[in-house]
Structures are given as C-alpha cells and as structure tokens.
Design brief:
Number of helices: 6
Distance between the termini: 51 Å
Shape: elongated
Helix content: 25-40%
Strand content: 25-35%
Number of strands: 7
Radius of gyration: 19 Å
C-alpha cells in the first residue's frame, strides 16, 4: 500500500498461497507470483515424464515442453512423425548441439541428442508425451 501511495506504477509481489495472493491483490499488487508452487509443478512434471527436459505453462490449458528425442523418434523426420495431425501439437524448434533451429525442416531426420520444443494444449501434449515415453 505504501508503494502505491508513493506512486509506484507496477507492483509485483510474491505469495506463498492463494489466500495470501488474494490479500496482496486487494491491497494494491498489480501482479502476484507464486515461485515455489510454479517450480514445484515444473519439477513434478519433469519427474513424472522421463523424456521431458522442461515445461513452461503458457496458460491454464496450454504449455511449451522440451522433449528429448527417444528411440521411437530417432532417424524419423517431423513429416514421418506427423505430430501436428496425430496429437494437435506443433514443433516450434529443435535444439541440436547447443543450437536452436527455430524453423526445422520437416524432412530432416532426428538425432538421438535432439530436443524438440513443442507447443500445444496440455491434454494434447500429455498424449504426445505418453506415446513417445521410454
């Protein structure tokens, strides 16, 4: 409240739970963040899905995941895997040798060290992850 009275335009605060967040919003916070909860969700998702490198929630129903290429995918192209048609997800990039290819060729075979950056609805991403999990 003091910061608002001082004229601070944007106030971002950390909350420990939803009730704490509601209180902070009511007293003037512009944005409430929950770093422990968010990181806990990311760690849990990583532990449950062995081939998930990272998970970024975009909204309540959409995310971006980094998926390690598994044995089922090695040597196949994005065109052969047909991820968009089968799962409703889009491969937006491929990490290969510490480089990011943000316009991956649909015909290039995937290597064992490649990481796919995939965006989609959470339920579609889960179907994709389950199918290609090792």
């Amino acid at each position: 409240m003091i910061l608002k009275e001082m004229g601070v335009q944007r106030i971002v605060v950390k909350a420990v739970n939803d009730l704490h967040g509601k209180v902070l919003k009511r007293i003037g916070a512009d944005k409430v963040v929950y770093p422990e909860r968010d990181m806990g969700q990311r760690v849990a998702h990583h532990l449950i899905s062995s081939n998930i490198v990272d998970h970024i929630e975009l909204s309540a129903d959409c995310s971006i995941v980094e998926v390690q290429v598994t044995g089922h995918m090695i040597g196949k192209s994005l065109k052969e895997l047909n991820i968009r048609a089968k799962y409703g997800c889009n491969v937006i990039a491929i990490k290969r040798d510490e480089k990011m290819d943000i316009a991956p060729s649909a015909d290039q075979p995937l290597g064992s060290q490649d990481i796919l950056v995939v965006v989609g609805k959470n339920h579609d991403l889960q179907s994709f992850e389950v199918t290609f999990a090792e």
